[in-house]
Amino acid sequence: MADVMVAEGWRDAGYEFVCIDDCWMAPTRDERGRLQADPKRFPSGIRRLADYVHSKGLKLGIYSDVGNKTCAGFPGSYNHYDLDAQTFASWGVDLLKFDGCNSGTLELLAEGYRRMSLALNKTGRSIVYSCEWPFYLRPLQQPNYTEIKQYCNHWRNFFDVYDSWSSIKSILDWTALHQDSIVKIAGPGGWNDPDMLVIGNFGLSWDQAVTQMAMWAIMAAPLFMSNDLRRISPEAKWLLQNKETIAINQDPLGKQGYQITKDKNFELWERPLAGQAYAVAVLNQQEIGGPQNFTFSLTFLGNGLACNPACSVQQILPASRDWGVYSWVSSLSVEVNPTGTVLLKVVAL
């Protein structure tokens, strides 16, 4: 994957991490209590792999768990937070995804996430810290996102993504439903994580793939792909490497977008961008029939300020197109395919 990321333009598009998820470990710790890699899967060990990945100008991510076992039953980090953080740092790891299985009580869960955060910082190595803290907390109590952001760089709120439209739809529905409690906390250093991009697999239609890419950009989501880059269609590659969409996703203002209105099967979302601009997404939730038109007043956007006194409108997805200049009192009419999204960039003039 690291080789393909360099050869096929992924690194240059901005994708810089190669992440290993659960099941990389040997079933037991070594005689000194340290985690060790599965000797069949990683015969040269993780340090050698990290060196190789770094030699390609990329970074390596790894996985552990706050409890005594990972979700798949391998050794967890409970009671070994400092040791595991030191081990990861000594290997040259750049990101840790820290899962929440088998943690016992909510107190132990929170304590473990705090302790691993401090342990990673103590190593002196810059390691991105990806948490599942709020997801495991949520069934039982409302997460304190101010606290979570003090310790984590991004955090999962909802169930794992699957390679299916129903999964993408449920993530978007959940996010819209809870936006009042999660949108405002997002910003540089700490992000809501709606889970991985599954574009380039087999479960999404083209329009649904466009929807995931557009909406993950609106949501200021970390972009981690779960796919096989050796077997990816040119269309999926074009979409995942789309410069204008990635620029919206990575906008320096760092504000997460939100849903501003829902009308029958249509949803209208916006995201404030740097330079008096807004990203706007029009999503058609209808799953049958043909393309439908959605018409809305530009005064809806940015509390009436996005197009004041005028604005330029550029379509980013599903294809790049210049829509020209509009005045404050204009309406936009957008044709959207079933389960598809049109992503626009609106710049005040």
UniProtKB/TrEMBL annotation:
Positions of the Alpha galactosidase A C-terminal domain: 254-340
Protein family (similarity comment): Belongs to the glycosyl hydrolase 27 family.
Entry's EC annotation: 3.2.1.-
Gene Ontology MF annotations: alpha-galactosidase activity
Full protein name: Alpha-galactosidase
The UniProt record lists the keyword Cell membrane: no
Keywords, comma-separated and alphabetical: Disulfide bond, Glycoprotein, Glycosidase, Hydrolase, Lipid metabolism, Lysosome
PROSITE patterns documented for this protein: ALPHA_GALACTOSIDASE
Organism: Buteo japonicus
GO biological process, one term: glycoside catabolic process
GO cellular component, one term: lysosome
Keyword Glycoprotein found: yes
PANTHER family: ALPHA-GALACTOSIDASE A (PTHR11452:SF14), ALPHA-GALACTOSIDASE/ALPHA-N-ACETYLGALACTOSAMINIDASE (PTHR11452)
Quaternary structure note: Homodimer.
Subcellular location: Lysosome
